[in-house]
Amino acid sequence: MGENSSGSPGRPLVGTVVSVNISRHKGERKKNVGTCRVTRLGLEGDGHSGEWHRQISLLAQESIRKMVDLGLDVGPGDFAENITTQGLDLISLPVGTKLQLGEEVLLEVTQRGKVCHDRCAIFYQAGDCVMPREGIFARVLAEGEVKVGDKIVVDRERTLKHGKEIRYSHHQR
């Protein structure tokens, strides 16, 4: 493949979109739609779209696999993430990081982790949930289409060197 996600100097950080997930309302598990238009507010038709800093959520397949290893029957979209990725250590990306998805979409990481105000069904089943500590959130900088199989490239040239970081601990109240 010639690219990796190790962050070696001079080599791009590259991952893959494995699922594009939407739901009409907040608090619902999202369904993989395969491809979706990304507008300036987020994924078209998604309940989390809007004028705020968490327009799009991302979670790594590797994080979901941790929950599967605990015996849960979960997969992409079950943690309400919009984009399920593979091959990138998302939580290591600082706030301000720019992510190019496919040919058109450009996102900026705005938050790492989140406060879990109401423990979800997954937490009650497994005693743990990865989204609050391993999910990231982004705002849309450039609109376009995102689809399963698209490359995700960490755009080092457009990434801010300093960003205000919002980092929440797991299930903080």
Q: What keyword list fits this structure?
A:
173 residues, mainly beta, three-stranded antiparallel sheet, disordered C terminus, Pyrv_Knase-like_insert_dom_sf, catalytic activity, molybdenum ion binding, MOSC_domain
SSE string, helices as H and strands as E: EEEEEHEEEHHEEE
Kindly provide the name of the CATH class.
Mainly Beta
How confident is the prediction overall: mean pLDDT? 81
Could you tell me the radius of gyration in angstroms? Answer: 15 Å
CATH architecture: Beta Barrel
Number of strands: 11
Distance between the terminal alpha carbons, to the nearest Å? 43 Å
* Helical content (DSSP H or I, runs of 4+): 10-25%
Number of domains: 1
Shape, per Cα inertia axes: globular
Residue runs with pLDDT of under 50 for 5 or more positions: 1-6, 161-173
Largest sheet: 7 strands, mixed, barrel
Number of distinct helices: 3
Strand order in the largest sheet: 1-6-5-9-8-7-11
CATH homologous superfamily, by name?
A: PK beta-barrel domain-like
Q: Which class of secondary structure composition applies to the elements?
A: mainly beta
Domain MOSC: 30-155
InterPro entries: MoCF_Sase_C, MOSC_domain, Pyrv_Knase-like_insert_dom_sf
GO molecular function: catalytic activity; molybdenum ion binding; pyridoxal phosphate binding
Protein name: Cyclic pyranopterin monophosphate synthase
